[in-house]
Amino acid sequence: MKSKEKILGVSDRKHTKQTLQKFFNKSYTNFHYHVDPGLDITQVPKYLLGIADVISCSEVLEHVQPPIQIAFAGL
Fold it and tell me: What H or E segment, with its residue span, contains residue 10?
């Protein structure tokens, strides 16, 4: 399956990562907070702003320090 969408994962776990890689191949990148490629969703680098069509994020937001709106804006 070829895809033009850009999919970003935020700390996707093994099965989510494998599934998204299978269907979206090089259009999918999974970011982590403490592992390369690193990403802090409260301080997103400018080169990543607005590039994603879909963001996969689970079990992340409960770890963000308030105000949570900064993390939502980063996503």
Answer: strand 7-10
